[in-house]
Automatic annotation (TrEMBL):
Keywords: Cytoplasm, Lipid A biosynthesis, Lipid biosynthesis, Lipid metabolism, Lyase
Species assigned in the record: Candidatus Marithioploca araucensis
Family designation: Belongs to the thioester dehydratase family. FabZ subfamily.
Function recorded in the entry: Involved in unsaturated fatty acids biosynthesis. Catalyzes the dehydration of short chain beta-hydroxyacyl-ACPs and long chain saturated and unsaturated beta-hydroxyacyl-ACPs.
Name of this chain's protein: 3-hydroxyacyl-[acyl-carrier-protein] dehydratase FabZ
GO molecular function: (3R)-hydroxyacyl-[acyl-carrier-protein] dehydratase activity
Superkingdom assignment: Bacteria
SUPFAM superfamilies the record matches: Thioesterase/thiol ester dehydrase-isomerase
Entry EC number(s): 4.2.1.59
InterPro entries reported for this sequence: FabA_FabZ (IPR013114), FabZ (IPR010084), HotDog_dom_sf (IPR029069)
The UniProt record lists the keyword Lyase: yes
Active site: 50
Primary residence: cytoplasm
Amino acid sequence: MSSMDIHQIFQHLHHRYPFLLIDRVLDYTVGEYLVAIKNVTYNEPFFQGHFPHRPIMPGVLVIEAMAQATGILSFKTAELQPEGNSLYYLVGIDNARFKQPVEPGDQLLIEVKLIRTTHGVWKYAATAKVDDKLVASANLMCMKRDISN
């Protein structure tokens, strides 16, 4: 079983607070899958406005957490780390479904499975669960792009 703590995650993602949405990688196999967690706390900045009387994690941020998990697996699989002049971008979302809300106190269990890599585009099947209940699923595509400063 392979895992990653927050310090190892920092080496594979450019994201930082408040936008880093992966707290720990529980398991992964290079080129196959990755399982990660996001601890959802009431102190998350988005809860102030989404929604004040019934805080719910925005669905787009659940998708972003899944996308960050794909980024980690892509870097691990390609045996690379983020460089100053390149990033893995989310370039496509298909079949996104939201089954139930994510609330403060929940722990998202994020699973991503590599479906294929074609012409530099990585395609993944992703799910997010809370207490073994599916809360979201999507097929995500990411691609490494060079950026100019």
